[in-house]
Amino acid sequence: MRAKPEFAIGGTYSGLYLFKLNEKLKLAAVQKIDGFNESSRFFEEDQKGNIWVGQFYKGLYQLELSEALTEASVKKVTAEDGAPIDEQIILSKIDNELYLATRKGLYQIDQTTDRIVKPSQFSKTLESSSSICWCKTTKKYPCDCREHGGLFQASRSNNYIFVPLLVSIAPILINDLLNVSVNTDDVGAFQCQ
Questions:
Q1: How much helix, strand and coil, in percent to the nearest 5, is found in the chain?
Q2: In this structure, are residues 119 and 106 in contact, taking their beta carbons and an 8 Å threshold?
Q3: What is the pLDDT of residues 50-68, one digit of tens each?
Q4: Mind listing the pLDDT tens digit for each residue in 10-36?
Q5: Contact predicate 65/109, CB 8 Å
Q6: 130-142 burial string, b = 16+ CB within 10 Å, else e?
Q7: What tens digit of pLDDT does each residue of 116-167 get?
Q8: Can you tell me the distance from the alpha carbon of 188 to that of 154, in angstroms, rounded to the nearest whole number?
Q9: Is 140 left (phi over 0), alpha (psi -120 to 50) or beta?
Q10: What is the rounded distance in angstroms from the CA atom of residue 182 to the CA atom of residue 193?
Q11: Residue 50: which of 111, 94, 8 has the closest Cα?
């Protein structure tokens, strides 16, 4: 957690759990965070300390945690907030920005207003896409697994170049069970599973 680095949050099928580093520097379970019971596979902390959960089948949620981090005040993000759809959302953090991959394209969470907006970065390459599977690696190479597929390779901080794949990998992916692995450090090869 940004404000309390001795704590961490884990996502489960029944919500979020709070963990704390113990004296042996190992995570110890504290408790389930009360107030939110949705499956929380995709979640990220924003710059203000709020937690965003992208639940693939039920939509996007914004959680404001109590001071003790044990309870959540929950807001379901809707079309009024700029959400393009309320299902099939994949949430990712890239360069400290929050992105949503949806069937209607790629969107970004404006962390100053908590509104959903079209991102300036990536959007020119992705604007013609009708369906997106968005992945990222620990090296921040997000992978766009559309009909043509490819990846955005970091050329420098906050700047990416789209590198298309020779074959489409989208038909072999399970849309909400994506994983990207870096195979070699020197060439940045990846594998979408």
A1: 5, 45, 50
A2: yes
A3: 999 988 788 899 999 999 9
A4: 999 999 999 999 888 899 999 999 999
A5: no
A6: eebbbbbbeebbb
A7: 998 876 666 655 544 444 444 444 344 444 455 566 666 766 677 766 665 5
A8: 10
A9: left
A10: 11
A11: 111
Supply the DSSP string of 71-133, one letter for each residue.
BEEEEEE-GGGT-S-SSS-EEEEETTEEEEEETTEEEEEETTTTEEE--SSSHHHHTT-S---
Residues 6+ apart with CB under 8 A from 63: 16, 33, 35, 36, 50, 51, 52, 53, 72, 73, 74, 75
Sole residue written with tokens 């700047």:
159
Tell me the pLDDT band of 185, cut-offs 50, 70 and 90: very low
Instruction: Extract the tokens encoding 74.
Output: 């929950």
Single pTM value for the model: 0.74
